[in-house]
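Lab notebook, bench 4. The sequencing result for the construct came back, and we need a structural model before the next group meeting so we can plan mutations. Quick request posted to the team channel:

Model the 3D structure of this chain.
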Amino acid sequence: MRTEPATMAAAGRLSFRNITALAPMVRVGTLPMRLLALDYGADVVYCEELIDIKMVQCERVMNDVLQTVDFVAPDERVMFRTCEREKDRVVFQMGTADPDRALTVARLVEKDVAAVDVNMGCPKEYSTKGGMGSALLSDPDKIEAILRKLVGGVSVPVTCKIRILPSLEETIHLVRRIEQTGVAAVAVHGRFKDERTRHPVHCDYIQAVAQAVSIPVIANGGSLDLVKSNGDIEEFRRASGAASVMLARAAMWNASVFDSRGPLPVERVMEEYIKYAILYENHAFNTKYCLCQMLRDKVESPLGKQLHAAQTNGEISEAYGLQEFYQQTQEQLRARRDALQSSSPPDRPVVDGDVTTMTVKFERREYPPQITPKMFLLEWSRREKLESPLYEMAQRSQDRAFQSTVTVAGKKYRSSLWEKSKKFAEQAAAVVCLRVLGIPEGRIGEEESGLVCKRKREAKTNGAAEKETSKKRHVSADKETETSKAANGDHRKPDTPPEQPQ
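Done. Here's the predicted structure in token form:
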């Protein structure tokens, strides 16, 4: 790993000259892959394309357990996760067709990234719908409006990534117009909008564009045909006449392509990737997808089949013999989480009108699967011969978050925090009530209170088991139906996986 990145300009801003970058790839460019690419020598790493409509709803959250910055959607999904290690190297790529929304997203993330990029080249439907991605290529006025808005509105460099247009003249005209907006660089994928990876990359177009503008041009699209190893990167740079090179598939298959000392065995690269996935709690779906791309033609091997059957990062680690690393990491994260909780000063109740409030966020992982604070509050109310707790819900218009107030024995309680779902809002209100009254709430590690009897706990567990059995029966019935359809001539193709990154 380089101690003094050549990518940093004198003023501390990211430079796009003479760099090799990890290209943005959907499902691939999450934090583990970005960190892995940096380990092997990439100068700059792009995140996967993230859609502006989803990002504007996110909340920036400091994750003290993972030591990351998370951008969390209303449904609790982490849309973008980053860390200090990549702060001056990561480029946030967004999909957008709206200047104002693009600026809102850029301002949300600008303190945590080195630059912001707009996707103007992806031809796939998830990107082009709503006028995003390569659909923007037919609307240069909108391209200019978006880029000018971003360049004038954020403190970090702004770039964009395009595909070449039907003629060289059109392509050069567009890139010159892009240059006038003040962007720091432009990445050019050397294929037309309707071309795919089986088509050869048009290095002559990239070269002509690079000669026509003064800003750095980043060549993209050379994986497989031109770049098979680290030594080929410079050849692609020279052939395209570009200032820099961006790699997608070559890096996805083996991220050590960035290492000038030569490629490492893909098995070792996969192990290093899995370790990052475990350390940063990467979604198992993304972890599996990336590993399958690395396996390539070995995806049907015994290891590939074991990987396909895995549903969690723990099961994936078992397939690769990394169970000990997984368990140690889980223990470290658990200890860090416990230490943070114990060091936090207890929140004090505050009377707000006729409501007692506390700053409480409901954390589902702090409670057993079959136990909730609402359940404890209900059982306590019954034991005290009180009416059942009554919950009232409020919704905030700007972000559609929820806040619940619970009434117990004529008194009202609520959390001062807003939750992303109605269920979590009610649980938070129940926690406030229980804590104010000094009643157990069922958290993991609490002494047995007797509020929720063993029979009810077992009933909950058995109910969950019965539900799972019923679900399996339903799946089995569905499979039988599909088999019957196939036998009777219903030959519709099943869902197919998405194409590989461009």
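The CA atoms of residues 378 and 388 lie 6 Å apart.
Will bring this to the meeting.
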